[in-house]
Design brief:
This protein is α+β, with helices and mostly antiparallel strands. It has a single domain (7-15, 24-99), classed as ATP-grasp fold, A domain (Dna Ligase, domain 1), CATH 3.30.1490. The protein contains 3 helices and 4 strands, in the order H-E-H-E-E-H-E. The chain has helices at 7-16, 30-40, 69-86, and strands at 24-27, 44-49, 62-66, 94-99. Strands 1-4-2-3 form a 4-stranded antiparallel β-sheet, sandwiched between helices. Helix 2 (30-40) packs across helix 3 (69-86). The N and C termini lie far apart (37 Å).
Length: 101
């Protein structure tokens, strides 16, 4: 049986196996996203996290670089809106905030 490991699950597995990975955390709302981004440091990338989306760029599910808290809030809202318009009825777990600096 073939299984697909995506997003944070894949990064966590790689980290457990000793690989260096970029700091990445899941935000459930834009306030949490700004807090995470401030803690890990700018610039960051924001990416949709959903088991129903493999190719995030095809649905406008990635924003980078994001350079400050105002941009995080704007990008978060855009990603949620893009996801909803391309994936009605699908599950959005949140938005991954990832260090890119």
């Amino acid at each position: 049986m073939e299984r697909l490991l995506l997003g944070l699950d894949a990064l966590n597995l790689l980290e457990q196996e000793g690989f260096s990975v970029l700091k990445s955390l899941l935000a459930k709302d834009e306030n949490e996203a700004t807090t995470i981004a401030s803690e890990i440091g700018f610039p960051v990338a924001l990416k949709v996290s959903s088991p129903d989306v493999i190719h995030k760029t095809e649905i406008g599910g990635v924003k980078a670089p994001v350079n400050d808290e105002d941009e995080v809030r704007k990008a978060f809202r855009e990603l949620v809106q893009n996801f909803a318009s391309h994936n009605p009825g699908k599950r959005l777990d949140g938005i991954i905030v990832q260090c890119i600096g």
